[in-house]
Design goal:
The complex is a heterodimer. By secondary structure, chain A is mainly α. Chain A folds into two domains: 96 residues, Rna Polymerase Sigma Factor, Chain: A, CATH 1.10.1740.10; 73 residues, Arc Repressor Mutant, subunit A, CATH 1.10.10.10. Chain A is 64% helix and 0% strand. Chain A starts with 18 loop residues before the first helix and ends with a helix. Chain B is built from 14 helices and no strands. The chains are: A mainly alpha, B mainly alpha. At the A-B interface, helix 2, helix 3, helix 6, helix 7 and helix 9 of A face helix 2, helix 4, helix 5, helix 12 and helix 14 of B.
Chain lengths: 200, 273
Amino acid sequence: MVSFPATDAVDPADATLSDHELMLAVRDGELDALGELFERHHGPLYGFLVKFTGQRTAAEDIVQTVFQRMLKYRHTYRDEGNFTAWMYHLARRCAADHFRKSNAAPAATDPADLQDHADDAPHAGDRAATSDDHALLHTALSRLDRDDREVLLLSRFQELPFAEIAAVLECSVGAAKVRAHRALRELRDTYFQLQQERLT
Amino acid sequence: MNCTQAQERFADLLDARRTGPDHAAVRAHLASCPACQREYATLARTLAALDALPAAPPSPALRRNFYAMLEEEKLAAAGRPAAFRRPRPALRSALWRWILAPAAAGTLAIAAFLAGTRYAPPAAAPGLDPATKRELAELRARVDSVGQLVGYSLLQQRSTSERLQGVLATLDRKDPSQKVLSDLIGALALDPSANVRLSALDALYPHANQQLVRSGVLASLPREQNPLVQVAMIDFLVAARDHAAAPELGRMARNETLDRAVRDAAQRGLAQL
């Protein structure tokens, strides 16, 4: 991979700079700083979106769009902003656009999307009953309401404090916790039910 | 603490990031309540399974596309003194589509014709020394590339995504025609989107054994401004073992106005050639 030299004003590779400081630098014209933010966050963001959408290609498209929008709307990033919350706020909107365009719930992961990746669990509706636990869990996730799936994944995969999750979801901290726990119970019920079906 | 109160606090107890004094009371209840133990154990098991889901990495294309997009934005930002002074895209597009593109195409076609009639050698030129042959080959490549650029200029009316799809569609063709290869070289040389140019280069890789392809990439290299695409083109020529690229790589390796990564790639390429 090509690495590009840092700018004079801000060293984008400086690990001591916080996400917020880097994004402020991007806002002020140091666009290279976005590279460091990409390196820090694209993996977790992609992981979240793969599980949220159930589709690898859609997840990659959304990650790309999120960082495009960061550049496009960098002037709107505020001094008192929270980068992670802002990023997931953008990601939610991009995902909503994706679902609106595809006009389909992310209920089924396309097996063709996953077959080239040996480390990824296969998943596809009824076929999951004969597959492994990962596939069962993917199926259970896909059967959750989209909002429930989102809050549960945010709470587990991104190590976001509930205060930030609440900011992303634009609700109270208490409401975010209740929704996450309710989603976990529903996931548990569906997951165990699928396991029982597989055994019988 | 009863079961309802205990289960209301399971969310906090399951959240490893939280520690609080209430947890002691919940744990005490759990120790004495088999029903709550079952409830808690199943939730914890589900969470453990969720956390253990494999996190597959994204494809390399994601990082490549991101840096191409970033470079494009940097170039755009550097070339625009003030956002409000930019011409309106619709106007610029209309100008290009109806006036500049036909004019540019005509000019290039005339230049190609004149260059061809003036410099093109007879079909067979036995007895020429190697240096002359090399010069003639370079001239042919330049004339060829001009012709390809003319052809490609006609495709400029489509959107970026359409052009990208057009390039990607060629990947499925095992034996593409010369016209397809010419269009790909044209995309590499002229397309305003770095993503399209990179995709065109990817699509040309399987055909790097063809002289037309190598010449086209080499002819496009000096006009390329994006460091990411420049490095990709250098890698292409080195992978194709195109020794004709050595002089150009030498010039790039010495050109201090180029990005450091590009100069390094040119230097490495020279060593390999």
